[in-house]
Design a protein that fits this description.
alpha+beta, 5 strands, 23% helix
Length: 151
């Protein structure tokens, strides 16, 4: 957390690079927060990414992990939690203004990658959470199509 709150890092956020200025207008609902990986299932890279921001949980039950692993198009699931020492203060910077986001701390984030290209054949995020007894933080979930920014 020291790095995210450091004067050097905050200066970079106040003076976005040319690449950052070119890329950021393409992103929507972007939030900057600190998380650490707790659990991972699968190894693939999908074309669709579901992000579920959950009420505080420590680990996913085996039943839930098994459910996702059996779904058609499933590639990889990662569960992240905020570090115990998380103390990221909300800051309004030029970089933040470009992405229309506010820095925050989320307790638990679940990221699921699918091999589906447009999201066809996938359950909604709300249905996935309900199926597995998970409670979403209101308004904090989304389905995103992954793109290649290497060009």
């Amino acid at each position: 957390m020291d790095v995210l709150n450091s004067p050097e890092y905050l200066k970079r956020l106040e003076e976005p690079s040319e690449r950052t200025r070119a890329i950021m207008p393409q992103f929507r609902r972007t939030v900057r927060c600190s998380l650490e990986l707790v659990q991972e299932v699968g190894v693939g890279v999908g074309g669709i990414l579901d992000i579920l921001v959950l009420k505080d949980i420590h680990t996913l039950p085996e039943r839930a992990l098994g459910w996702w692993d059996k779904q058609t198009f499933f590639e990889r699931l990662r569960l992240y939690r905020a570090p115990i020492s998380a103390d990221l203060k909300a800051k309004y910077t030029r970089e933040g203004q470009m992405r229309y986001g506010v820095d925050t701390v989320w307790a638990t984030v679940l990221m699921i990658e699918w091999s589906s290209i447009q999201g066809e054949g996938l359950q909604t995020i709300g249905d996935q959470a309900k199926q597995n007894g998970l409670t979403l933080v209101s308004g904090q979930a989304g389905r995103f199509r992954l793109i290649n920014l290497r060009n």
